[in-house]
TrEMBL record:
<dbReference type="InterPro" id="IPR025662">
    <property type="entry name" value="Sigma_54_int_dom_ATP-bd_1"/>
</dbReference>
<comment type="function">
    <text>Required for KRAS signaling regulation and modulation of cell proliferation. Regulator of KRAS prenylation, and probably prenylation of other small GTPases. Required for lymphocyte development and function. Not required for myeloid cell development.</text>
</comment>
<dbReference type="GO" id="GO:0005525">
    <property type="term" value="F:GTP binding"/>
</dbReference>
<keyword id="KW-0547">Nucleotide-binding</keyword>
<protein>
    <recommendedName>
        <fullName>Rab-like protein 3</fullName>
    </recommendedName>
</protein>
<dbReference type="Pfam" id="PF08477">
    <property type="entry name" value="Roc"/>
</dbReference>
<comment type="similarity">
    <text>Belongs to the small GTPase superfamily. Rab family.</text>
</comment>
<dbReference type="InterPro" id="IPR027417">
    <property type="entry name" value="P-loop_NTPase"/>
</dbReference>
<keyword id="KW-0342">GTP-binding</keyword>
Length: 216
């Protein structure tokens, strides 16, 4: 059997937002019973059928690189993480829907990964919002995933999801909100599963079909 082509997708976000639980759910289709802190980086693999159900269907490996989420701004911490940012094909930005700071920190994470040699200085503009122009020319596909949806009271859910929708818009990315302890949020045929498949298809297209500006 011929070896499958593969793409590298970073999974970034603060410590404690549920990145390891998410990766386990995506790759094993199981709930991670006893998640622990990720030190450095952990890699798992998901098999994905590109353009499933069409004549162009082809199977790929999706490597999901779960990068430890220490937010420390120390140069040594960032330079250690920079090793994992090489040759990336896509980024999943993960935040905790119950923790607004983890959502705001996604801007720092994305800029750190996309501009490895540039410190995220001047990310904030004068009115307190983030400058989406910084992401306008980004060619790396992004997906925003909010976790712990089950922990938001019904009365506050609309307010929180409205706020995070603007977050995804800033990144020009689709958004998935879920509970990593419940596989039904990614059940086959669900809107979340469709968004996830579409994201992986886009990552594969950028890596294998859009070289030198050639369209698929």
């Amino acid at each position: 059997m011929a070896a499958l082509d593969r793409v590298k997708v970073l999974v970034l976000g603060d410590s404690g937002v549920g990145k390891s639980s998410l990766v386990h759910l995506l790759c094993q289709n199981q709930v991670l019973g006893n998640p622990s802190w990720t030190v450095g980086c952990s890699v798992d693999v998901r098999i994905h059928d590109y353009k499933e159900g069409t004549p162009e269907e082809k199977t790929y490996y999706i490597e999901l690189w779960d990068v430890g989420g220490s937010v420390g701004s120390a140069t040594s911490v960032k330079s250690t993480r920079a090793v994992f940012y090489n040759l990336l094909n896509g980024i999943i930005l993960v935040h905790d829907l119950t923790n607004k700071k983890s959502s705001q920190n996604l801007y720092r994470w994305s800029l750190e990964a996309l501009n490895r040699d540039v410190a995220p200085i001047g990310v904030l503009v004068t009115n307190g919002d983030y400058d989406r122009e910084q992401f306008a020319d980004n060619q790396i596909p992004l997906l925003v995933i909010g976790t712990k949806l089950d922990q938001i009271p019904e009365a506050k859910r609309n307010e929180v999801l409205t706020r995070t929708a603007f977050l995804a818009e800033d990144f020009n990315a689709e958004e998935i909100n879920l509970d990593c302890t419940n596989p039904r949020y990614l059940a086959a045929g669900s809107s979340n599963a469709v968004k996830l498949s579409r994201f992986f298809d886009k990552v594969i297209e950028k890596r294998y079909f859009l070289r030198d500006g050639n369209q698929v």
